[in-house]
Amino acid sequence: MNSTHKDLHSKLTLGGLLVSLGIIYGDIGTSPLYVMKAIIGSHIINADIVLGGISCVFWTLTLQTTIKYVLITLSADNHGEGGIFALYALVKKTKIKWLIVPAIIGGSALLADGIITPPISVSSAVEGIRTFYPEINTVPIVIGILFILFTIQQFGTKLVGRFFSPMMLIWFGMLGILGLIQITKHAEVLKAFNPIYAYNLLSIHPEGFYVLGFVFLCTTGAEALYSDMGHCGRKNIRISWIFVKITLLLNYFGQAAYLIHHEGETLQSLGGANGNPFYLIMADWFQPIGIIIATLAAVIASQALISGSFTLINEAMRLNFWPKVRIKYPTELKGQMYIPSINWLLFLGCVGIVLHFKESKNMEHAYGLAIILCMIMTTILLNFYLIMKRVKWYYYSPLITVYLIIEFGFLVANVTKFSDGGYVTLLIALILISIMTIWHFAKKINKIYTKIVKIEEYKKVLFELSSDLSIPKYATHLVYMTNAGRIDEIEEKVMYSILQKRPKRADIYWFVHVNILTVPYKTEYRVTEMVKDDLYRVDFNLGFREPTKINLMFKEVIKDMVTKGEVDITSRYESLNKNNIIGDFKFVLSEKFLSNDSDLTFFEKIVMNSYFLIKKLSLSEESAFGLDSSSVKVEKFPMVLHAPEKIGLTRVQ
After folding, report:
1. CB atoms inside a 10 Å sphere around CB 541
2. According to the model, what pLDDT value does residue 303 have?
3. CA distance 267 to 254
4. How many degrees, rounded to 5, is the angle at CA 411 between CA 407 and CA 415?
């Protein structure tokens, strides 16, 4: 780990703690808006269910969020970065191929969660207005807020970020104070710290396991907490979590204290059609202020998840799980990015969720099923990370077993939500899993059927072609992008393009290779001189979170080589050379299409046809590499899979 990342994780500053509040805890911090409301639902308030439910909330936040994520999983950072794809990049070194399965399922489930978190958070907050206007339709208001939120993404979160931290500090302060007021009135609620109440709910009460599906909502933001680690640092997260957890528990226990005091009643009788214990514990005069603060906190929670989705897709692209899409960098901050296509797809998904479910109480049934899948996948990958770190088996085995039992328990409890709306997030996750799987397998098939040749065999002919004045000059500098990992190799199609497709004479040939590393941030390059003043290879080693701006990077490499006297890039045309004019650069990219001569298996047919369909909708190769389209030539090559060796023609006279 380099010193920057060491500093990030060892530094403990007031600024870092405040930034953590604004960026990390949006999702988990807004859970009090809907958890207790979901646990009680439309049933008559029962003290046993309330105490059992709040006991489950306390132990879930302690075992799942505090111990698993804040203490253990945050230690599994990939050069300072967290999240399921960063964890996969680490365990990938074990060479266990099937680990790609939990990575793809987990990443897809987390993205699916990103589509339902903004609607449920914003809806829960906005529905507080019904306290004053019971008949108001909140759907247009929620969609309006979401539209504004997704529109401002293109400007980056630098300015908005300054507002996030103080706002979340006010939010958590409000949570703690409101809860504390209720606890002082009904201190008997504190006995729920005893796990026997959680045990009784799950083992004795007939509705206990059903309630567990809603208890799980209190920890859904834990996975996002791990994903955003690179923004704030491990130490700042661990210390700030102490404050966050205390305020969350105070509010949860405060809501429980209020509900116990109103045993035998219903939420509807206490607060009308939209009775929510979160708002019921507020004094009447404070409710309008509380609604405004809750709405702002919900917007911030949504913002954090949208930014996390951008990061996740960027990592998926680098790991060959996702088609190339356009990425913009609205600010100079490391890790800040904006992906227009994902932004508006998320927005459409969120609007679809709001229109389908209409109210937050209906969304509660769809929420949680996808994210528990993500947590189980993280636990599986974490197991192999601990093995890789040579942790003794008698330490990690019981730990992983306990968490798999807990999480599978939550999964079973959440499966009951499937028919009530859980199918929506699972369907979204399934679509995302399909895209990632198709893209990954297609890339593997592509690699298998790409013929590689040794450059050594072509050095002589390239040198002679460069000097052959009978062939019109194609460019002064001809640049080919190559996927060949070894510096002494090149794809056969590249040599076919230079020598046969149309002989391309150039003064200097360049082969450029981009190697995406398993570390998040690194920008290195290596130049290999193959034939002096005639043939060069440039290898870029880029972190999986670095932008691929080959046009700018290649210019920087050339500038550095010219400064060191390693290459002469002035035009070889006599009139231009004597006036010191720089020669032209032409990039050549190859684009494959599926040949009709291919004899595909059923699986390959589905994968490759789907791959080429998705490819049409994704970013072009020149845009993906950040190349200037005016100097790029794209050549099409047929991709032949399992070509028949002999057709068996018979010659007749």
Report:
1. 16
2. 77
3. 15
4. 175
Contacts of 364 (CB under 8 A, 6+ apart): 34, 37, 38, 120, 214, 217
Contacts 24+ apart (CB under 8 A), 598-604: 598/639, 598/640, 598/641, 598/642, 598/643, 599/641, 599/642, 599/643, 599/644, 600/641, 600/642, 601/642, 604/445, 604/641
Those residues whose C-beta lies under 8 Å from the C-beta of residue 416, and which sit 6 or more positions away, are 209, 210, 213
Weakest mean pLDDT among 163-177, 233-247, 268-282? 268-282
Quote the CA–CA distance of 456 and 89 in Å, as a whole number: 34
Decide the pairing of beta strands 585-594 and 473-482. parallel
C-alpha span between 514 and 525 (Å, rounded): 9
Q: Which two tokens stand for residue 434?
A: 């399909």
Residue 42 is predicted with a pLDDT of 79
Residue type, 331: T
Residue 214 has pLDDT above 60, yes or no: yes
CA–CA dist 19, 407 (Å, integer): 30
Q: Which of 307, 344, 326 is nearest to 547 (CA)?
A: 326
Strand, coil or helix: 518 = coil
- Domain-by-domain residue ranges, the chain? 14-439, 449-639
Q: Across residues 183-204, what is the average pLDDT?
A: 91
Q: DSSP label at 78? A: B
Any idea which fold 14-439 has? Amino acid/polyamine transporter I (1.20.1740)
Asked if residues 138 and 313 have their Cβ atoms less than 8 Å apart, the reply is no
* End-to-end C-alpha distance for the chain, whole angstroms: 74
Residue matched to tokens 């202020």: 289
Q: Are 228 and 375 in contact (CB under 8 A)?
A: no
SS (H, E, C) 265-306: CCHHHHHHHHCCHHHHCCCHHHHHHHHHHHHHHHHHHHHHHH
Question: What's the CA gap between 330 and 307, in Å, rounded?
Answer: 12
Residue 363's pLDDT band (cuts 50, 70, 90): confident
* Backbone angles phi and psi of 526, in degrees to 5: -135, 135
Most trustworthy range by pLDDT among 43-47, 435-439, 569-573: 435-439
